[in-house]
Amino acid sequence: MSDRPYRKGQCLRVAVEELRKYKGTQFDPLIVDTFIWIIQQGKIDFVQMYGREEDLSQLKEIVSTEKESV
């Protein structure tokens, strides 16, 4: 989600979609699920980490889509 020299930082939606896409291959499924749960609980201060607010309501949509596809 942070800015890189070659691209602007991604939004939460894109970051979570990438975590889900590579869950079980690049990323440990338990860690991904736990991290998403922590975000849903509001335990990450996006302003402090990235200097911007993130819309957590979109996360509910992403997670519900995942549950439907399982």
* Main sheet overview: none
Report the end-to-end length measured between terminal Cα atoms: 26 Å
Q: Residue share in helices?
A: 55-70%
Mean pLDDT: 81
Overall number of domains:
1
The fraction of residues assigned to DSSP E strands is under 5%
The number of E-state strands comes to 0
Q: What structural class do the secondary elements suggest?
A: mainly alpha
User: What is the chain-wise order of helices and strands?
Assistant: HHHH
What does the overall shape look like?
A: globular
Number of helices: 4
Rg over CA atoms, rounded to whole Å, is: 12 Å
What are the segments in which pLDDT stays under 50 over at least 5 consecutive residues? none
Briefly, what is this?
The chain has helices spanning 12-21, 29-40, 46-50, 57-69. With 70 residues, the protein is mainly alpha-helical.
Q: Helices, strands, pairings?
A:
Elements: H1 12-21, H2 29-40, H3 46-50, H4 57-69
What does this protein look like?
The protein has one domain (12-69). Helix content is 57%, strand content 0%. The protein is built from 4 helices and no strands.
Key terms:
mainly alpha, 70 residues, globular
